[in-house]
Amino acid sequence: MCTNLTNVTIPDGVTNIFSYAFSYCTSLTSITIPSSVTFFGAYVFSNCTGLKNAVLLNASAFSGRSNSSGSSLFQGCTSLTNVTLPDGMEWLAPNMFEGCNSLKSVAIPSGVTRIYTAFIRCRGLTSITIPSSVTYLGNSVFHRCTGLKSATVSTTYSENNNMFAECTGLTSVNLPGNNAKLLSGAFEDCTGLTSVTIPEGYTNIGEGAFMGCTNLTRVTIPASVTSIDSSAFGDCVRLTDVYYGGSKAQWSAIVVDNRAAGNRYLVDAAVHFDSGSPAET
Predict the structure, then answer these.
(1) Alpha helices, DSSP H only, in the chain?
(2) How confident is the model at residue 37 (pLDDT cuts 50, 70, 90)?
(3) What is the average pLDDT across 228-252?
(4) Which regions of the chain does DSSP assign to beta strands (E)?
(5) What is the pTM of this model?
């Protein structure tokens, strides 16, 4: 714990930087990782609260089948505002930027295929675009990013339970049209959402997907949806209008799990079909 260390030069030729190497070096303000580094241990720069700029030059530390390199790499670096990620990296490590509250945006390289729980509690993050190359988003990947206002997901994804849970500032989200299921708790407690459009192609809205979205007033649901799980719209107390892409008969055929009246606000909402007319009551 070198709290007075303000600058460090990592020589080219270093290949491994092991766990906690610079953890709690609170006076360190910038770091450039040379291209020779191919492996990071866990928590290498964690809680370097003065760190503002980080440049990673070698993608191979974040490539291959394993995700063991770089876990919690910058966790708790609360002053980090600029990070440069190398082209060619394949994944972002678990908790890589957790709690980096000054990080407002991150350019995710287009070749990245997996994003683990990289951005939990990045409260300063205001927008994010997930490139189409990504096929895996870890559970809770943007959990409690309370400053996040807009998100664009351009990919088919998996394992995205609680993806944007408690992103209370989120007002706009664009989802891909080629996913089958909106998984559990995906937008739970996103109190800034007032309307949501679920693209054609989704067949299921998972348990608690929009639970606690207390300002949600309208939702657009495609005709491809065949089931809506328990409390998918639980506590959506302002939900009044559903815009449905199919017919009244198709809407009636959707299996809605309303145990303990968990979807009562959805069930009680006015349903509008293609003609724009509300459902008969």
Answers:
(1) 248-253, 264-268
(2) very high
(3) 96
(4) 16-17, 30-33, 39-40, 53-56, 82-84, 91-92, 114-115, 127-130, 136-137, 150-153, 172-174, 181-182, 195-197, 204-205, 218-221, 227-228, 241-244, 255-256, 270-272
(5) 0.88
